[in-house]
Design brief:
The structure is a single chain. By secondary structure, this protein is α+β, with helices and mostly antiparallel strands. The chain has 4 domains: 119 residues, 2-Layer Sandwich (Beta-Lactamase), CATH 3.30.450; 164 residues, Reverse transcriptase/Diguanylate cyclase domain (Alpha-Beta Plaits, 2-Layer Sandwich), CATH 3.30.70; 249 residues, EAL domain (TIM Barrel), CATH 3.20.20.450; 42 residues, no CATH class. An 8-stranded mixed β-barrel has the order 14-15-17-18-19-20-21-22. The chain has a 6-stranded antiparallel β-sheet with strand order 2-1-6-5-4-3. Strands 8-9-7-12-13 form a 5-stranded mixed β-sheet, with helices on both faces. The chain is elongated and about 125 Å long. The N terminus is likely disordered.
Length: 654
C-alpha cells in the first residue's frame, strides 16, 4: 500500500525544494499540493533510511500500513504484519523499567490515548532474531473524521533494542543481587510496598519471612569468601526450588534473605514452608572438594495482623527472627505482641558478657562421666556458667551463639581451657577433664599455642585433657585442620567427637581424624525407649562401630532407669547424664573426691518423660469427619494430655 493515501494529512508540511535557495528575507518556499511527488519522494527516503518508520491502524486496531523497511528489518513478510491487531503484534514488557509503560498497551489503545515514545516488545518473529528480544519506541496520534468518528492511529516508530537492552541491564543491576540473581533489598521493599498497598482495600493477607543463615560467618572465616559466595548461590537455588511461584525471594545482604508470600496467612501452611526451608537449607553444600554445613533461622510476620506498612511488618518479622536465633537457631518463630526488641537484647547481652569476662564473673561447672560397671567417675566435662546480676543464670544456649557472632568466643574459649586445666590439676590423676572447643576457636592458628600455654601454666598432664569437637571443624582448611590434629596428638591430648549423628556425620571423619572418643548425642537417648523409633538401633550401631575402630564411646543425656538399662544392653560402658549428676561446682567435686573414691550411684525416675509444659486450653480435635471439644492440660514433644473426650469410637482411641 502506497503512503499517498495514508499520509494526506502531511500536505501542509513546509519543505525547501531541492536546488532552491531561501527567498530574500529568510522565508522558506512552500511545497504545494502540486509538489506531492516531491513530498512522497522525501517520505520514501525517510522510510528507507532506517531512522524510523511510519505506521497506521484502522478503527478496529488492525495495522493497515507500515513502512516496508520495517518489515525487512523484522525479517517478516509485509503480508504477515498487515491486518494484524496491534495488540497481537506488540506487548508491553512486564520488566519494563520505564514508568510510562506501566499501563497495558491494550488499555492505551482502547482509551484512544496519545502515544508518546511508548516502548513495546515485538511479539512475533522472535525465532527469526535468534531468540533476541526486539523493542520499538512508538508514537501515535488518534485520528477522527469531521463527525468525530474514530478512524484509527497514525504514527511513527523506531527500533530501540540496543538502547533498551542496556536500560534493562542497568535496571536489573539496580534491582537484583548480582551474586545470586535474586531481588535485592530495593526491589523487595518496592514489591512489598506495592503488595501491601493493593491488598489493603481487598483486606488480603501477605506473609513475610526473614531468614538468617546460621554459621555462614564461620564458612567465610574458615573457607574463604569465594566459598561463601558459592554457598550463597546454592542457597538461592534451593530457596527458589522450594518457594516456586508462591512468592518472591530476595537477598538483603550477607546471609540475610527475605521471602514475600502473598495471600497466605494460615500458620500451619507457613510453618510447613518454614520447616521445609530449614531442612533443605541445612543439607550439606559441596564446595570444591569440601563440604559446608550451615543452618537457618526464620522469623515470620503476617499482614494485616502484624503490620499494615512495610516498616512495621519488617520490624515484626525481624523480632521473630531474633527470637528464633536466641531460642537455639535452626528453627522458626512467628511474631507475637510480647516479643521484645531482640536486637537490642542481644547487644546488651553482648556488652554484659564482655564485662563478665573482663571482671572474672564467669564460672566453670563440671558434669561427671561415669563408668557403668562400678559407677566410678572417670572424667568431668567443663561447662561454662554465667550468673547475671539482674537476669540470674543465663543459659549457654543463649550467650554462646552471641559470643560466636564475634571474636569473643575465642577469648571465652581460651579462658575456659585455662580454668578447666587449673581445676583438673587438683583432681586425682585418674580423672580427666573434657573441654568443649568451638569451630572458630579450633580454626584459629594460635589455638595449639593456647593449649600448650594452658598445660604449661597449670602443670596438667596432656593425656588428662580431652578436647570435645563437633564436625563443623571440618568445614575449614583441611590442611590446617590436619596440622592442628597432628600437633595436638603429638602433645598427647585426647580428642572426642561430640554430638555424633546429629548433623551430617561422615565416616570419613573417623577414618581421617585421630579421635579417641565418640559421644552419642542426647537426642537419640530422649527417644530410645519410644515405640516406632530407630534411636535404640542407632545407639547400638554407633557403639558397635566405635568398638570396631577401637574408639571409646560415651552416651549423653541419660536421665531415667529405662534409658539406662537400654543403653547398657546396647553395650554402653560410659554414661553422662542427670541420672548420675548435673554439672557441679569445683568446690563440691573436691569435697566428694576428698571422701575417697569418687563414685556416684544412679538416681532418677523409672521411666523417661519428655519435658512438659502445663497448659489449660479448650481445643477442638478433628478425627475423620468428627469434631470433639476437649481440654488440653499438658504439652510435650511426644504428645499431649487431653481431657473431656466422650463418645469416641474405639478405633480412634487406639
Amino acid at each position: 500500500m502506497a503512503a499517498k493515501g495514508i499520509l494526506s494529512g502531511l500536505a501542509g508540511l513546509r519543505f525547501t525544494p531541492a536546488g532552491n535557495a531561501p527567498a530574500p528575507g529568510g522565508e522558506v518556499a512552500v511545497v504545494t499540493g502540486v509538489d506531492s511527488a516531491r513530498r512522497l519522494e522525501i517520505l520514501d527516503d525517510f522510510e528507507r533510511s532506517g531512522f524510523g518508520w511510519l505506521w497506521a491502524s484502522d478503527a478496529d486496531g488492525r495495522l493497515i500500513y507500515i513502512s516496508g523497511s520495517a518489515a525487512e528489518k523484522l525479517k517478516l513478510p509485509l503480508a504477515d504484519l498487515l491486518a494484524q491487531p496491534l495488540t497481537t503484534l506488540f506487548e508491553v514488557d512486564p520488566d519494563n523499567p520505564d514508568e510510562k509503560s506501566d499501563r497495558p498497551f491494550k488499555f492505551q489503545l482502547s482509551a484512544r490515548n496519545k502515544l508518546v515514545d511508548l516502548v513495546v516488545r515485538l511479539a512475533l518473529g522472535r525465532s527469526k532474531h535468534e531468540g533476541r528480544q526486539v523493542w520499538w519506541s512508538i508514537s501515535g496520534q488518534p485520528k477522527f473524521d469531521q463527525e468525530g468518528r474514530f478512524l484509527g492511529y497514525r504514527g511513527s516508530a523506531k527500533d530501540v533494542s540496543v538502547e533498551y537492552e542496556r536500560k534493562l541491564q542497568d535496571s536489573r543491576l539496580a534491582e537484583y543481587d548480582t551474586l545470586t540473581g535474586l531481588a535485592n533489598r530495593h526491589r523487595m521493599n518496592r514489591r512489598l510496598d506495592g503488595i501491601l498497598a493493593s491488598y489493603k482495600a481487598a483486606k488480603r493477607s501477605c506473609a513475610l519471612m526473614m531468614l538468617d543463615l546460621d554459621r555462614f560467618k564461620h564458612v567465610n572465616d574458615t573457607m574463604g569468601h569465594q566459598a561463601g559466595d558459592e554457598l550463597l548461590k546454592q542457597v538461592a537455588e534451593r530457596l527458589t526450588r522450594i518457594i516456586g511461584d508462591r512468592g518472591e525471594i530476595g537477598r538483603l545482604g550477607g546471609g540475610e534473605f527475605q521471602i514475600i508470600l502473598p495471600d497466605i496467612d494460615d500458620r500451619g501452611t507457613l510453618g510447613e514452608i518454614a520447616d521445609k526451608v530449614i531442612q533443605i537449607v541445612s543439607q550439606p553444600y559441596p564446595i570444591g572438594d569440601k563440604r559446608a554445613i550451615i543452618g537457618t533461622s526464620i522469623g515470620v510476620a503476617i499482614a494485616p495482623y502484624d503490620g499494615l506498612e512495610r516498616e512495621e511488618l519488617t520490624h515484626s518479622s525481624d523480632l521473630a527472627l531474633y527470637a528464633s536465633k536466641n531460642g537455639g537457631r535452626s528453627q522458626y518463630r512467628f511474631y507475637t505482641a510480647d516479643l521484645k526488641d531482640e536486637s537490642e537484647e542481644r547487644r546488651l547481652l553482648m556488652e554484659d558478657l564482655r564485662e563478665a569476662r573482663a571482671d572474672d564473673k564467669l564460672e566453670m561447672h563440671y558434669q561427671p562421666v561415669v563408668r557403668v560397671d562400678d559407677n566410678l567417675v572417670v572424667s568431668l566435662e567443663a561447662l561454662m556458667r554465667w550468673e547475671h546480676p539482674e537476669r540470674g543464670y543465663v543459659s549457654p544456649a543463649m550467650f554462646i551463639p552471641i559470643a560466636e557472632d564475634s571474636n569473643l568466643i575465642i577469648q571465652l574459649g581460651d579462658w575456659a581451657l585455662r580454668r578447666a586445666c587449673r581445676d583438673a590439676a587438683g583432681w586425682p590423676k585418674s580423672v580427666r577433664v573434657a573441654v568443649n572447643v568451638s569451630a572458630l576457636q579450633f580454626a584459629n592458628p594460635a589455638f595449639p599455642d593456647a593449649v600448650i600455654d594452658a598445660l604449661a601454666a597449670t602443670g596438667l598432664e596432656p593425656d588428662r585433657l580431652e578436647l570435645e569437637l563437633t564436625e563443623s571443624i571440618f568445614m575449614g582448611d583441611s590442611e590446617a585442620v590436619d596440622q592442628t590434629f597432628k600437633t595436638l596428638k603429638q602433645l598427647g591430648i585426647r580428642l572426642a567427637l561430640d554430638d555424633f549423628g546429629t548433623g551430617y556425620s561422615s565416616l570419613s571423619y573417623l577414618r581421617s581424624a585421630p579421635f579417641d572418643k565418640i559421644k552419642v548425642d542426647k537426642s537419640f537417648v530422649d527417644s530410645c525407649t519410644l515405640k516406632d523409633q530407630n534411636s535404640a538401633k542407632i545407639i547400638g550401631a554407633v557403639i558397635g562401630l566405635s568398638n570396631a575402630l577401637g574408639i571409646e564411646t560415651t552416651v549423653e543425656g541419660v536421665e531415667a532407669f529405662d534409658q539406662l538399662e537400654l543403653v547398657r544392653s546396647k553395650g554402653a560402658l560410659f554414661i553422662q547424664g542427670w541420672i548420675y549428676s548435673k554439672a557441679l561446682k569445683n568446690e563440691i567435686i573436691l569435697d566428694r573426691m576428698a571422701e575417697g573414691t569418687f563414685k556416684i550411684e544412679p538416681d532418677g525416675p523409672d521411666r523417661y518423660r519428655s519435658d512438659r509444659r502445663t497448659v489449660f486450653r479448650r481445643i477442638g480435635i478433628i478425627h475423620e469427619d468428627h469434631r470433639y471439644n476437649a481440654v488440653m492440660r499438658d504439652l510435650s514433644k511426644t504428645g499431649a494430655l487431653v481431657e473431656g473426650l466422650l463418645g469416641i469410637p474405639a478405633a480412634a482411641r487406639a
